[in-house]
Sequence to fold (252 residues):
Amino acid sequence: MAEHRYKAIVIDLFDTLVTWNPEGLPLMQFRGREIRSTTPLLYSTLETALGKDFDREKFSEAHASVYSDIFSERARADAVEITCLERFARTLKILEVDESIAVPLAEDLRRIHMARVREVTKAPPARIAAMKKIAEHHRLGLISNFDDSETGHQIMRDTGIRELFTAVIISADTGYRKPNPLIFKKLLNAMRLEPADILFVGDTPLDDVLGSKGVGMHSAWIRTRNRELPEKIPAPDIIIQDLAELPAALGL
Fold:
């Protein structure tokens, strides 16, 4: 049981407060295997905009190539964020779509893709109840690595507890992701707190545990599937299996 020494509890969003269900995405064949993806939802819009020039396989390959590049960029030491809109813009550029068509089309693709992501993302009631209980004793904040600002904030509003949070920081708004210290410092400035005042809660060892510890925060790790903490990741102050367990871990 932890002492009540924290002035604020700051949490991650995906796989901490909310979960998303990939079973809600359409099935498609890609590179010889069946996967879940929003890509089939985009075909109609792409075919309308590009006509006979649109090729489903070429689009999928271009999009996969761009996503791979973005994954590498995000993994650099500076942990930059590349937005969903930029991802589609790069994909259309590879396909040599005229800019006058590509700019509005990329926004349409972002909107369709994110609408389904939002639809399949939910906050379990036990986690909502836990945050309501914690809010009776601590200020709340949130930092999320998510590549679309509008949808990230919509998902937070969908939980029904957005008003409990002093600050909500989405990486798409900042240009950088956890574990970059800058995104944590943005939260500190918004909440006007010192790092030692905060317990940061998340499921990802690198982004959430190392990132928060690196700026001087306390850390709670959501350890799922009996995972072991990777080497060179500092030990968290609290280990739980689910956010719903946090009130008890705090002695509330």
Notes: The chain has a mean pLDDT of 96. Residues 153 and 195 are 24 Å apart (CA to CA). The chain has ten helices and ten strands. The first helix runs from residue 39 to 50.
